[in-house]
Amino acid sequence: MTTRIILTITSFIIALVTNAQKLDNSLLWKISGNGLEKPSYLYGTMHAVCETNIDEDVMKAFEETDQLYLELDMDDPNLQASMMNGLMMKDGITITSLISEDDAKLLDAFLIKNVGYSLSLINTFKPFMVSTMYLPKLLDCPMKAVDLELMKISKEQNEETFGLETVEDQLAVFDRIPYKVQIEELMKVAKNGLVNDKKEIQKMLTVYKSENIEEMLKLTKDSDNKITSKFSEELLIKRNKNWIPIIEKVVKEKPTFIGVGAGHLAGNNGVIKLLQKQGYNVEPIK
Question: Which InterPro entries match (predicted)?
Fold first, then answer.
């Protein structure tokens, strides 16, 4: 009985220490152990950057793996059609039904200037999805996407690309975040003319370049945008937990390169620690 109590306490202390440990600054992590014959790799991406962080270590990891998994299967021929269906708000709700006439005029002028579409053309879109349309305007450079760069490498190596979730799964998240909150954030941006968002993305780019994944997660929690700061359960945690069984399955089948948003890596409910809790060695490649 005494031995069992000691073992329980020891396990509890180890769990606490593991959860408290700060993760190293690295976007690339090696997944091994737990019966795996060959290692797989986990990599933190960013959807809008000036320069990708892809280096020799990333290329070496690609050479050691046989397939690519991203958040979405970007090669899916039905992706565009599925995305169009998921862009719309449910129950006939429109953006103009959520705001005043004066705000609608202001938002229309903002969208024409920064997106190239009038509000009338995208009135049924989920407000958060409208926000993604002006992403290129936040950068002082031609926009690149790390995910697309990974896909390019995968194609050059004649490897297939798969997704950890469907586009329907991903877009459904924004039905669970109140449309009212989404439109409030969109109107904030329209009224301040992208100023705050430009500052925020510049901070994010600097931290991403430094590969500080702990700070990446902190930036999302401290964001002035309520969608990212108040709804991490929907945006990050639930999705991380849903991905773990899929990741476990595919890494057992063959060595896999896995690319997910860098904000998903860190934290007690981040992909790294969730995999470690399942018994895998997940180590930084510096």
Answer: TIKI1/2-like, TraB/PrgY/GumN_fam
| 57, two tokens | 């270590």
What residues contact 28, with CB distance under 8 A and at least 6 apart?
Answer: 41, 42, 43, 44, 57, 58, 61, 284, 285
> Domain residue spans in the chain?
25-284
**Single-letter residue type at 271:** V
**Nearest of 200, 198, 219, 199 to residue 262 by alpha carbon:** 219
Return all residues near 262 (Cβ < 8 A) that are at least 6 apart. 27, 44, 45, 46, 208, 213, 216
Q: Which residues pair with 43 in a beta bridge?
A: 28, 259
| Residue 24 Cα distances to 207, 215, 260, angstroms | 13, 11, 17
In tens, the pLDDT along 60-73 reads: 999 999 999 999 98
> What pTM value is reported for the model?
0.89
